[in-house]
């Protein structure tokens, strides 16, 4: 089993200090980035933002590309002793409508065959949204990007489209349906990985750069 190189700042061996770096008058050395694993709540808020964006996009698509819904009315009689019905016109013209048997109009909605195609489009939209953004140079969906989160490989590289697709499928069919256990694992695993992260071999990082430490000379 191959070993995984730990990220800087999380178990990595300390780097040797150049000569003179410990002097008070020495210029500050450039410090490397530190990997910070994205916690549970950071990812929850990112998910909420993504859900709002997807809901808005689906609503706009439904206005322009949604199927046309037709309403057909069917007249059902209310049975009585005479087995007769009265339509809407007769009810409107009679002075005592309740004295005669009446009928009930039942609406039937017909969306047509276009509804199936539109339903498939709405189903594929979240997958395309996550895969295309996470496998791009952004390395994150807009919601994750807003909170400075990035989805990377275990070595910190950009994930492929196939890995992003695997991550989404595991999240959609295992992490969420199984009582959200695969998602709650983020709060308890060492590197804040959900079930979909472990299977796909990904990490969600919140990159931060350490503030440079500027030494001050001691007072005489």
TrEMBL record:
Keywords: Cell membrane, Membrane, Transmembrane, Transmembrane helix
Pfam families given in the database record: RDD
Domain of life: Bacteria
Domain RDD: 37-201
Region ranges (Disordered): 1-25
InterPro entries for this protein: Pra-immunoreactive, RDD
TM segment ranges: 44-65, 115-135, 168-188
Intracellular or extracellular location(s): Cell membrane
Topology of the protein relative to the lipid bilayer: Multi-pass membrane protein
Keyword flag DNA damage: no
PANTHER family linked to this entry: PROLINE-RICH ANTIGEN HOMOLOG-RELATED
Name listed for the protein in its UniProt record: RDD family protein
């Amino acid at each position: 089993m191959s070993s995984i190189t730990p990220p800087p700042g999380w178990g990595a061996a300390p780097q040797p200090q150049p000569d003179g770096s410990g002097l008070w008058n020495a210029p500050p050395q450039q410090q490397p980035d530190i990997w910070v694993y994205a916690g549970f709540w950071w990812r929850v808020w990112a998910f909420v933002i993504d859900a709002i964006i997807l809901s808005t996009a689906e609503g706009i698509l439904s206005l322009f590309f949604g199927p046309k819904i037709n309403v057909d009315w069917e007249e059902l009689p209310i049975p009585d002793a005479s087995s007769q019905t009265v339509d809407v016109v007769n009810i409107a013209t009679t002075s005592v409508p309740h004295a005669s048997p009446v009928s009930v109009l039942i609406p039937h909605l017909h969306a047509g065959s276009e509804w199936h195609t539109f339903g498939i489009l709405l189903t594929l939209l979240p997958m395309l949204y996550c895969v295309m953004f996470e496998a791009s140079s952004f390395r994150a969906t807009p919601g994750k990007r807003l909170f400075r989160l990035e989805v990377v490989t275990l070595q910190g590289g950009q994930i492929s489209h196939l890995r992003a697709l695997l991550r989404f499928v595991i999240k959609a069919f295992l992490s969420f349906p199984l009582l959200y256990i695969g998602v709650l694992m983020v709060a308890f695993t060492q590197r804040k990985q959900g079930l979909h992260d472990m299977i796909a071999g990904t990490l969600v990082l919140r990159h931060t750069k350490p503030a440079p430490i500027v030494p001050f000379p001691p007072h005489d």
